[in-house]
Amino acid sequence: MKILVTAGPTREPIDPVRFLTNRSSGKMGYELAAAFAHAGHSVLLISGPTALDVPDGVDYMPVETAEDMHRAVSHHIGRMEVAVFAAAVADYAPKELAPEKIKKTGETMTLELVRTPDILGSARGAMGFEGTLVGFAAETQNLVENAKDKLERKGCDLVIANDVSKPGIGFDSDHNEVLLVFADHTEPLPLGSKHDLAHTLVRRITELTC
Ligand code: CTP
Asked: Ligand 1 pocket check: which of 20, 28, 118 to mutate, most ligand atoms within 8 Å of Cβ?
């Protein structure tokens, strides 16, 4: 099958030397891309900046900003059978990119932010994607309710939810503990390495598509 995976953080520039980003390492998305490729699928990995090596056998498209990622996904999703959105996309970006380095002036400064495109949220609508759609939900409270709401609002077949308030899992960790949220049931997966978890997720996502 043809699989699209988004991964990593995005970088939203403030001026030529500064940007807004988040703690995503990209590990979960890269492990998923590697596991799909290992299972014999054709994978396009669209990723924000990470320190990771591109997995063998995976087509790689680097992007920086949420806007870039949105453009790349819009361009390629039409030929995909499965799309997995593991990227930690910035929800807001600076309204203006200062052409020169911003010099310090007063004791405080205000940065005006604007919403970035909701890539997962536009897959079904604006992009017309009809394949298997998988999103991630990183929550600090009401995990099940928030993930179910996300599944419905964004037209996902599966939301992979994790509680990022738990120490040692999720963002920037090698381990993760997730809850699979389907339309009609939920299924907790035990704590494990992102590597092992990726292989389990590939099996569960592939079953959804058959
Ligand atoms: N996502 C995306 N584009 C964005 C923001 C998020 O594609 N601009 C995707 C992520 O890759 C992930 C999912 O949306 O698969 C969940 O992101 P999250 O920010 O938790 O979802 P939201 O519904 O935007 O968050 P909330 O309503 O909790 O603010």
From this structure: 118
Burial of 65 (0-12, 13-18, 19+ CB in 10 A): buried
The tokens of 188 are what? 């907790």
How far apart are alpha carbons 46 and 149 in whole angstroms? 26
Beta bridge partners of 15: 18
Q: Is the pTM of this model over 0.85?
A: yes
Cα of first residue to Cα of last residue in the chain, in angstroms, is 10
Nearest to 177 by CA among 201, 208, 153: 201
142 labelled catalytic: no
Architecture per CATH, domain 2-98+109-209, reads as 3-Layer(aba) Sandwich (3.40)
Query: Which one has a higher pLDDT value, 165 or 72?
Result: 72
205 compared with 169, residue with greater pLDDT: 205
pLDDT tens digits, one per residue of 120-173: 999 999 999 999 999 999 888 999 999 999 999 999 999 999 988 887 776 778
Residue 79 has what DSSP assignment? Answer: G
Task: Please provide the size of the chain in residues.
Answer: 210
